[in-house]
Amino acid sequence: MPATFNHTIIPARDREVSARFYRELLEVPEAPSWGPFTNIQLHDGVLLQFAEPPVDIQMHHYAFLVDDELFDRARQRLLDNGVQTWADPFQKQPDEINTNHGGRGVYFSDPAGHGIELLTQPYL
């Protein structure tokens, strides 16, 4: 069997708030949770587990490949909720959309301060 990505733990200040943010952004249903984790499962089966570590949270980058329709809905939800977006990871192009790699993309921060990217075409 070839290797596939199965799950990751995303550090959160409030695991419920972060899980809800991603669930609504990516339009995925609630998933069973256990122990210190609040989980969501992406449509390809990848599990995102949100936990509240007892240490300062270091910023991570997470990129999600979405179709054009979800991109439009998610970006509009971000704007409606007052979440600042940028066309670039260096936050030099506010409120713009990039057209890198033949698609569209935006960058923004999640509730824990992680750098999130939505893109409609993969890099490779």
Verbal overview:
The protein has helices spanning 15-26, 68-80, and strands at residues 7-11, 38-41, 47-51, 61-65, 105-109, 115-119. With 124 residues, it is α/β, with parallel strands linked by helices. Strand 2 (38-41) and strand 3 (47-51) form a beta hairpin. The protein is globular. The chain starts with 6 loop residues before the first strand and ends in a 5-residue tail after the last strand.
Short description:
With 124 residues, the protein is α/β, with parallel strands linked by helices.
Q: Using the CA coordinates, give the radius of gyration.
A: 15 Å
Strand order of the largest sheet: 1-3-2
Q: Helicity level, as a percent range?
A: 10-25%
Mean pLDDT: 97
Task: Report the uncertain regions.
Answer: none
H/E element order: EHEEEHEE
Give the overall shape.
globular
Strand composition percent? 15-25%
Largest sheet: 3 strands, mixed
Number of helices, counting only DSSP H or I runs of 4 residues or more: 2
The span between the termini is 22 Å
DSSP strand tally: 6
| Content-based structural category | alpha/beta
